[in-house]
Please model this.
Amino acid sequence: MILPIDPPNARQRLFLLDRHKYVAFGGARGGGKSWAVRTKALLLALRYPGIRIMIVRRSYPELRANHILPMKGIVGDAAVYKETVKEFRFRNGSMILFRFAATEKDLDKYQGTEVDVLFIDEATQFTEAQFDRFKACVRGVNAFPKRIYLTCNPGGVGHGYVKRLFVDRLYRAGETAADYAFVESRVTDNLALMESDPDYVARLEALPPKLRRAWLEGDWTIFEGQFFEEFRNDPDHYIDRRNTHVIAPFEIPDGWNIVRSFDFGFARPFSCDWWAIDFDGRAYLILQLYGCTGTANEGVKWHPDRIFSEIASLERSHRWLKGRRITGVADPSIWDRSRGDAIVDFADRHGVYFDKGDNERVPGWMQCHYRLSFDDEGYPMVYFFETCRDAIRTLPDLQFSAVNPEDLDTTGEDHFADSFRYFAMSRPITPRLPTSAAARGDDPLDLYKR
Model:
């Protein structure tokens, strides 16, 4: 049977023809990986009657949007999709199974699953241990090919093992170099995307330098060193506010909104931060209460009752805060009541109120990066008063995580950074884009939807 499948680009063609046991396809974002996965799966299902194929992603909505719905528009009467079991069943006896694994517990459901070919879409979102468990599903006494296909971008919790196997080609005992192949792709290879969304490249170019190199150029080597590399502290510009994030304090005009962000700590520092928002949406860290002993990353061990008593006192007495309406956002963990009173209960007793912060880490860090980036005239969307010394001290010292290279290293003094992230996610902004892209009002989180 002939299916209505568009012709592949050059890189997709290499992927479709590759017969190594393990084949990885990717590098930069937007390289046409999802198309390659569903096309290869369909071709295998038609070529080998009775073959069992499985496509895995982190969540079912991703599977549905990227594979199930597009396949429904292609297979015609060659196959029927069974929603209850999430499988395409072909007239020739072949099957394509769709499975997701958001948590370690989800993997237990697939322990007895047996397939001939496995596709792990966005493999860097899975740990090496999860990858090994999925590999065990590929088995069977038959003549069908036994292969594992991966799609991948730099970053994510699986960055290290994918880079080791397919980019650096460093193999351990039991791994054979001849089994592995890597087909590199970039967004410029995906002519269909370039035609339908010509500003996608502009959005990638607007990212901070390291993420730009990873997601636009497919560079696997850059996730190391300073996490907030765009941060600038230039005393020569404290007054004119150009090309610096640290500025001289000033009186806060009437009418500006005040937002309080909070990250709790006991043995480690807590960070309570007050932000003034001007009429253009630019944020200014004007005041900070930081619970540190003076030794880096050592908390003062204040009881929550004392923390919120101090916060309430500041808001009643400080000239920038008293008499103003203050909204708050905090780490969702302070609502945990599994061991008695929640931290937020102490805050409520002192009239210090919070909304639950959005704790999505990578999108949150992107919002911080968007605010820290400078426009063409040298102005960022966030400033720090020079009196907020702990914010200025800790932010530039944070490093990339060795476990999840799109995240920061949580062993560092990241308490103000977390508070900054909750604030930034409470008031998301768009990245600085070239004029042609900015004029369209693109969603700043589009990169996480593709």
About this structure: The chain has 15 helices and 15 strands. The two ends are 30 Å apart (CA to CA). The chain has two domains: 10-196, 235-448.
